[in-house]
Amino acid sequence: MREDFMKEKPVLPLLLSMALPMVLSMLVNSLYNIVDSFFVAKISEEAMTALSLVYPVQNFINAAGVGMGIGINAAIAYHLGTMEKDKANQAASQGLLLAVVHGLVLTVVCIAIMRPFLEMFTTQEAVIDLGMRYSVIAYAFTMMIQLGVTFEKIFQAVGCMKVTMVSMMSGCVANIILDPVMIFGLGPFPAMGIEGAALATGIGQTLSLVIYLAVYFARPIPVKIGRKWMKPEGQMVKKLYGVGIPATLNMALPSLLISLLNGILAAFSEVYILVLGIYYKLQTFLYLPANGFVQGMRPLIGYNYGAGEHRRVSQLYRLVLIMSGIIMAAGTVICLLIPGQLMGLFTSNPETIRAGEMALRIISAGFIVSAVSVTSSGALEGLGKGVPSLVISLCRYLVIIVPVAFVMARIFGPTGVWNAFWITELVTAAVSLAVYRKAVARKG
């Protein structure tokens, strides 16, 4: 495979060839998130609340894998752009070793903290019990997540987007099929309830990893993984963590935000915790496809930056910004037109549906402008500039939204929390443009 196509092919066809497989797989992934929650909601509203409370820790596990994967992706793409194949092999091999270590640590820690974590947000023993039953099984597959995401980013770094599309879609489709079978007990399978949802998720994640391994050993790619490149080397580990830690924090910040907002909303009613949980499931249908374009952009921007093609870097950024904006505009229209029907997918409680309708209409006011933050943060990660990317995410998920939500909740109640979302997106968009331009101006 020739990797120099990343700086030779016209920018728009190149971006589409890299991004569309990711957009498609992200759409299936977001469909899985919604279907999974749909079936869990059929167990009981307590089960859906438990899933909402477990989500931040579950998201942190995914964030740790994806964040480190982004660090590996950026290092591989950059070194391929500078024609340093040996360093690209080091990035892949040492990144995989670190993923194993992270998987072991996260499995033990997340299972250990789960009960006290749940008790911070609810006193309902039924919700805590359901959350524990789900999380212990789900977290047992942490190693599969870390390794699967590492291979995903390695394949993406060399332009093998169709492989990652097939792997991700296979895992998601397996989840979608197994969810009702294992939750409700179809055919020879016993009814496992919320444990069945967790097991279906883990089997899907394992299937994705198996596909990556099969393709890696059956078909050569420009990057190799081997013991001779696996011994940790200071500069490479620093480079991987230099992007990987900020990228992990970028993706983990939503988990922290949800936990903090749950704390604010719990003072009013657990109905609002459920509404927030449903919103975060629904918004994946927008942000995951937009992230598909970002994933297609990252290796292209990294490669072209390493090759000194700064004009192509700017073209890629603008194209992804436009495409993300179009996706967000579509999401805004949908949330304004049918918010009640969307909430009705997860609950039949009229009070919850009414609260959710208002929340979706208000929050959606910030969707379009959020494309600026999403694109800028992803582009900076692709350029290997993890800290500026983290600055954007800190504004979006912590520094601005939490104090605004806290103050507005005191004045307007739960409605104030929903308004904090669009206010934050507006301010963060302005910050994002400034941070991106300043970081790119400092070439190198």
Automatic annotation (TrEMBL):
Topology of the protein relative to the lipid bilayer: Multi-pass membrane protein
Family that this chain belongs to: Belongs to the multi antimicrobial extrusion (MATE) (TC 2.A.66.1) family.
GO biological process: monoatomic ion transport
Cell membrane listed as a keyword: yes
Species: Candidatus Pullilachnospira stercoravium
Function: Multidrug efflux pump.
NCBIfam families in the record: matE (TIGR00797)
Keywords in alphabetical order: Antiport, Cell membrane, Ion transport, Membrane, Transmembrane, Transmembrane helix, Transport
Transmembrane portions of the chain: 12-32, 60-80, 92-114, 134-151, 163-186, 198-219, 240-265, 271-290, 319-339, 359-380, 387-411, 417-436
Main subcellular localisation: membrane
PANTHER family linked to this entry: FMN_FAD EXPORTER YEEO-RELATED (PTHR43298:SF2), MULTIDRUG RESISTANCE PROTEIN NORM-RELATED (PTHR43298)
Protein name per the record: Probable multidrug resistance protein NorM
GO cellular-component term (any): plasma membrane
Compartments in which it is found: Cell membrane
InterPro entries assigned: MATE_fam, MATE_MdtK, MdtK-like
rRNA-binding recorded as keyword: no
One of the record's GO molecular function terms: antiporter activity
